Amino acid sequence: MKRLVPLVFCIALAAPALAQPVDPAEGARELERLARAAREASAELSFEAFRDQTLYVEETGKYYVNGDTPIRNEKLLREFWEQNVRSEPPQGEDGTPEFTVMSVGGLDQIWSVADRHRLTYCVSHAFGSRHALVVGDMQAAIAAWEAVADIDFIYVAAEDDDCNNGNDRVMFDVRPVNAGGQFLAAAFFPNDPRSDRSVVIDPSSFQLDPNGNLTLRGILRHELGHTVGGRHEHTRPEAGVCFEDSDWRGVTDYDAFSVMHYPQCNGMGDWSLTLTAMDKSGVACLYGAATGFQIDTSICMPAGGAPVPVIESFGPFQIAQGAMQMVMQAPVVPGSRFRAEMTGSGDPDLYVKLDGPALVSSYDCRPYTAGADETCDFEVPAGRSLVSVAVHGYEAGEFSVTVTSTQP
Question: Which residue has the higher pLDDT, 211 or 129?
């Protein structure tokens, strides 16, 4: 089943057309006008009508909005509708520095120190005669990110025969999908669960103009940018045309040439989708610099390190539908690892907040999946010193929470 979304804040990659750049102030005004017009056009849509007109791909089990942005379940799609269709989404800050990283609350969604050096993947043999092409272009696209950031992708060819989102022997899979040409490819963010960590490639990615700048290798460079936490550069107001939501944080200055910026979203790139100097320093500031790469500190400053944890268990607890229960609150060391893992039954939701109470309306991590098995796992940012954990009963249930943290 495939559905098309009527509310489009961004055009998909599949139709290259360069737009003229605009200045940030003009872009912000145009962005506001376009977003308001889109919301007004869809204002009468119920959630059910919006859901039924949104692209859904059975092979991935996900909805897709804004070109290649996946929404992994109906709960999150409803939230997107409430915050971006029925209501006016909060705007990003003008002038915020920008290599754009996925951020929820104040928390960057990037790979942990333990995981960033073991980003294992497979490439499905379902690509048939194109398998070797995908393997080669994946390795070339990966090389561009590994050359600048302290991350390691590892190709596990032995898993290619069982390369799907149910294979826990790799961190993610690369496989074909038939999206009907609605997107060229789509990926995931580091905070997604394993079942949602796939790079999927539509057949249209193999039908590009051989004389054009847009290539499968460039598309994969863009999608791999998502897998390390990069958001579309055009989410920010300076882009002037395309906008998705406010779950992002700037790392470098706004970059209209960025590999994460679609040229038709007032980008200035040429569809080759290569990493710019700002992309390179931006991702290196998040993960540390790769050997031989020097971060340009006039662009951004690198983040700090991470020490050793203790484990505490809470529960089991019963929770009613609509109830909110505080689980724990404790000081934490900036730069340390924090992990809260919930198990149980029913549909409770895990909420974690830094430097404040965890609330339904205020959180830094909320997996928001169907069921009770949820995890928040992140490095405590600099300047943060307190964490609170709470659970909300989306539906009634029972839960236990195990917390791993470093306290001063």
Answer: 129
What is the number of other CB atoms lying within 10 angstroms of the CB of residue 110? 25
Instruction: Record the tokens describing residue 178, joined without a space.
Output: 């038939």
Measured between alpha carbons, how far is 403 from 75 in angstroms, rounded to an integer? 25
pTM exceeds cut of 0.70: no
Q: What is the mean pLDDT of the chain?
A: 76
**Alpha-helix runs per DSSP H in 154-236:** 216-227
CA dist 295 and 302 (Å) reads 8
- Please give the DSSP secondary-structure letter assigned to residue 289: B
pLDDT band at 165 (very low <50, low <70, confident <90, very high): very high
Q: Are 107 and 365 in contact (CB under 8 A)?
A: yes
Q: What is the pLDDT of residue 43?
A: 61
The type of residue at 113 is V
Tell me if residue 392 falls in helix, strand or coil.
strand
SS3 letters across 90-157: CCCCCCCCCCEEEEECCEECCCCCCCCCCEEEEECHHHHHHHHHHHHHHHHHHHHHHCCECCCEEECH
Residue with tokens 């989102």, as numbered in its chain: 165
Do residues 263 and 233 touch, judged by C-beta distance below 8 A?
no
92, 31 contact by CB (below 8 A) = no
Q: Band the pLDDT of 215: cuts 50, 70, 90.
A: confident
- 258 vs 39, higher pLDDT: 39
Confidence of residue 17 (pLDDT cuts 50, 70, 90): very low
Collect all residues with Cβ–Cβ distance below 8 Å to 330 and sequence separation of at least 6. Answer: 386, 387, 403, 405, 407
Q: Which amino acid is at 402?
A: T
116-130 exposure pattern, b = at least 16 Cβ within 10 A, e = fewer: beebbbbbbeebeeb
pLDDT > 80? residue 400: yes
Peptide bond into 203 cis (omega under 30): no
Domains, the chain: 1-302 (3.40.390.10), 310-405 (2.60.120.380)
Q: CA-CA distance, 263 to 41, in Å (whole number)?
A: 25
Q: Measure the N-to-C terminal CA separation of the chain; round to a whole number of Å.
A: 52
404 contact partners, CB below 8 Å, separation of at least 6: 309, 310, 311, 337, 338, 339, 340, 341
Average pLDDT over residues 330-346: 91
